[in-house]
């Protein structure tokens, strides 16, 4: 199977940027232990502190789909409800 790359752009309400960071830390730590996770790196935009980007690489799509219902992601979603204004997820594979 082909590795899957995920690029997720997450916009956080400016009033909640400081509040959400510990929850992102927990999500990153939990996700990195999941089966199939090769890379999971959180970035924050230098000009727009409310814009976060997650770069992920998974061994395959089914294991990424398992992540999408994993306890650490569900906990993150429940603890950050109302803090995130938008999220755009791009599923990608290496070209060529």
Number of domains: 1
CATH domain topology: Alpha-Beta Plaits
From the structure provided, what is the oligomeric state, counting identical versus distinct chains?
Answer: single chain
Helix content: 25-40%
Overall morphology:
globular
Class inferred from helices and paired strands: alpha+beta
The CATH class name reads: Alpha Beta
Features:
96 residues, alpha+beta, Alpha-Beta Plaits, 4-stranded antiparallel beta sheet, 4 strands
Structural description of this entry:
The protein contains 3 helices and 4 strands, in the order βαββααβ. The protein is of the alpha+beta class and 96 residues long. It has one domain: Alpha-Beta Plaits, CATH 3.30.70.100. Strands 2-3-1-4 form a 4-stranded antiparallel beta sheet. Helix 1 runs antiparallel to helix 3 (71-79). The protein is globular and about 40 Å long. It starts with a strand and ends with a strand.
Layout of secondary structure:
Layout: E1 4-12, H1 17-32, E2 37-44, E3 51-58, H2 61-67, H3 71-79, E4 84-92
Antiparallel strand pairs: 1-3, 1-4, 2-3
Helix pairs in contact: 1-3
